[in-house]
Specification:
alpha/beta; Rossmann fold; 2 domains; 6-stranded mixed beta sheet; 4-stranded parallel beta sheet; 12 helices; 10 strands; about 35% helix; Pyridoxal-phosphate dependent enzyme; pyridoxal phosphate; ACCD_DCysDesulf; TrpB-like_PALP
Length: about 280
């Protein structure tokens, strides 16, 4: 289990940074750069590797039997964990929300099963308690979505790869990415919420340079929205960068809207973190 060797041979690190141009900010002297973490790997892309690396790095068979985490039927986090465990020889368990599901319910679950992840399906009521089944009590636990201090620490290397700038934008799910970036940087960070969990995010000790933007959830997490879908399609057409409407689409929509409405000062240099999620 050689993390350094895996990074060198399988991952594209450091991920590239690309400047994008648009008439809505070019005339204002604003520069927008995209940190292409979506290009790290086809499966462990975006913030997935950043959040998982320290859990994998510190794992030891002398203390635990494997790694266990939680998620839904289409969890990118569990998908990445299953692949990482398969690649590095670490047994993994996924506690899946939905007792009606099976390993054949969708391509995600089938692939995770093929990679050797033990899938444990439980009811939504039981899932909320995040109880660990007795047969997996010797597994090290990673919180849902990968949130945790090790994930927050994992953002330090990401920050080290960023150019000097005035502002950083990132999508916010569990909050680990935004908190970690702000914690390891002196730059102002705008975290764009992708679900209605502001109170949960603010229950953590947030760095003073992190501001939470909650105006671009579009009603409900992952809810289909024609305006947002059109924005993602037009963004890809113009900039040749794929984004999805659940995380990066909401973040870039907020960024564009902030610029158009004068919330970002002229001559600002900003970096948007592409946290992946595009299959």
């Amino acid at each position: 289990m050689d993390i350094a060797n895996f990074e060198f041979n399988a991952l594209h690190l450091p991920s590239p940074i690309e400047e994008i141009f648009d008439e809505c900010w070019n005339s204002k002297g604003i520069q927008v750069f995209v940190k292409r973490d979506d290009l790290i790997h086809p499966i462990i892309s975006g913030n997935k590797w950043r959040k998982l690396k320290n859990y994998l790095q510190t794992f030891s068979f002398s203390t635990h039997s494997g790694l266990l985490s939680f998620g839904g039927a289409y969890s990118n986090h569990l998908y990445a964990l299953a692949f990482a465990g398969h690649s590095l020889g670490i047994p993994t368990v996924g506690i899946i929300r939905g007792e009606e599901l099976t390993t054949g319910s969708n391509a995600f679950l089938s692939q995770m099963n093929d990679w050797g992840m033990q899938l444990h399906f439980i009811s939504r009521t039981v899932y909320r308690s995040k109880t660990i089944p007795l047969e997996y009590e010797k597994y090290a636990v990673i919180a849902e979505g990968g949130f945790g201090e090790l994930a927050i620490q994992g953002m330090e290397i990401l920050v080290d790869e960023l150019p000097a700038c005035d502002l950083i934008y990132t999508a916010v799910g569990t909050g680990a990415t935004a908190i970690g970036i702000a914690k390891h940087s002196e730059t102002s960070v705008i975290g764009v919420l992708t679900l209605n969990n502001r109170s949960e995010i603010e229950s953590h000790s947030l760095p003073t340079n992190l501001s939470i933007e909650d105006a671009y959830v579009f009603g409900k997490y992952a809810k289909q929205n024609d305006e947002l879908d059109l924005f993602c399609a037009e963004f890809h057409l113009q900039h040749r960068i794929s984004i999805e409407p659940i995380y990066t689409g909401r973040m870039f929509y907020a960024l564009f809207d902030h610029i158009k409405n004068g919330h970002i000062a002229p001559n600002t240099k900003l970096v948007a973190i592409h946290t992946g999620g595009v299959k």
